[in-house]
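Quick one:
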Amino acid sequence: MSEEPSSQSSRRSWLEKLADAFSSELRDKAQVLQLLQEAHENELLDQSALHIMQGAMKVSDEHARDIMVPRSHMVCIEHDDSFADIMKKIVASSHSRFPVLSEDSSTVTGILLAKDILQLAQDYHFDAEKIAANLQQIIRQPVFVPEIKRLNRLLRDFRETRNHMAVVVDEYGGVAGLVTIEDVLEEIVGDIEDEHDPTEEKDIEQIDKEQFRVAALTEIEDFNEHFDTELSDEEFDTIGGYVTHVFGHLPKRGERVVIADLLFTVQSADERRIIQLLVAPASQLPIPLTTTDTSALG
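Output:
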């Protein structure tokens, strides 16, 4: 009987601390995070709720450039792509939205939704010439955001305008990458998987002519066989472990490194490990990164 008042007093004390933290004129994020951790330890928040609240605070400090898909890994519709070309890209990537490039591929002129072109194809009974003649009618205006756009403001803009994708531009107005509302939400709640995400059974999946999606748990032996490389498997069993070692830290989404003339981009990761990698020839890089001599690792 004596324990209940003590428990209630502890909970009231914690709630008072939280109220003081949010009502204070100068808000200290570190203090709020500490209070949230205490709430979890006092069983007022479960692990999932704690993770979401921590993620929600984190997005106010991150920018579009921190989570964007870099330009070299964007799946785009070229100016002269045929209906067949477009359909191949839709099927291979499983994406629902695609940037449309200008004639010289220097900028993004629109966004094409997979559902729109499928509806157009149905309306014209899959007649390729008629589809091509009417394609511009379904291309939507792109939304551009600067690299330094904060994620909390970007999420608000996505909600207010009902857009799901934005093209990220650098300080010179050039296309740096793209970001989606799902990318922002994943920073808050963690990876969002759907039925189109690659499964562990398919460790290496080709996306386009030179780009592959590779599960971090892929055995190094299998990776070497597929890419004709000679990465050492003496210290690490998986490509994710090998790449993490090369980085020298647990990398975040979007970080890149060149190993054995291949460009590795972290597509997804959590607090403990890399989950998915994008692998392409290092020649896709507009500016060379520091390369790694893999012979020194094994």
